[in-house]
Amino acid sequence: xxxxxxxxxxxxxxxxxxxxxxxxxxxxxxxxxxxxxxxxxxxxxxxxxxxxxxxxxxxxxxxxxxxxxxxxxxxxxxxxxxxxxxxxxxxxxxxxxxxxxxxxxxxxxxxxxxxxxxxxxxxxxxxxxxxxxxxxxxxxxxxxxxxxxxxxxxxxxxxxxxxxxxx
Length: 167
What we know:
The protein is built from 2 helices and 8 strands; from the N terminus they run αββββββββα. The protein is an alpha+beta fold. Strand 4 and strand 5 form a beta hairpin. The protein is elongated and about 95 Å long.
């Protein structure tokens, strides 16, 4: 009796999984899979300041494609199973909601995604050493190095003179 229950539960589970797979494959986006158009279009971050950059990714554009919006100039999408693009938001873009569109190079289907442009330039954080020192900072640093070199030389010369007199 137990074997028949286990068999019935197993058969039901396999039937449920078997019926769910075609439905999942049929609903994976406007292009219904690779080669048929862009799917799973994502933006990161979804809220971006004027003048900043935003990353766009789209699946299903094996030959690459184009990304465009009123907030940024048309940008190329890289080729591959997941294409990537970096969109530079215009500094004068009006704050608010925008849509971007993605079209693959190998077909005419278009997918869209929504994002928000925020007012202001935002903080210039996270540069992690990618900005070098200014010319004023370089001059101050050079002056400090020269002053310490002169001070060290004076110290050594004075110490040497007092050392000879004692001997």
